[in-house]
Amino acid sequence: MTSITIKNKMVYQFVKFVVDFLMNLITLNIVDRIMSSVFIPQNVLLIAAALLALMEAAFDEQKSRKTP
Asked: Is there a contact between 26 and 45 (Cβ–Cβ < 8 Å)?
């Protein structure tokens, strides 16, 4: 089993944040396109995707602290 160093952990968290951000952005764009009755501006989509990715990272960090 290998241990994760601080540098590797930071890179891992950054890559995970970017992937989460992109997946949230794609999901929100799909929903925006499908629902013609709702219009969400692009800047709101970016902010919402970033906030969701930050919340996912925060809750993931809390979960990993509890797991031995």
From this structure: no
Residue numbers of the domain that contains 10: 6-66
DSSP letters along 2-24, please? PPPPHHHHHHHHHHHHHHHHHHH
Instruction: Using DSSP, state whether 40 is helix, strand or coil.
Output: coil
Domain count, the chain: 1
DSSP designation for 68:
-
Tell me if residue 35 falls in helix, strand or coil.
Answer: coil
Q: Is residue 1 part of a domain?
A: no
> How do residues 15-28 score in pLDDT, each as one tens digit?
889 999 999 999 99
pLDDT tens by residue, 38-54 = 888 999 999 999 999 99
What CA dihedral angle connects 15, 19, 21 and 25, to 10 degrees?
160
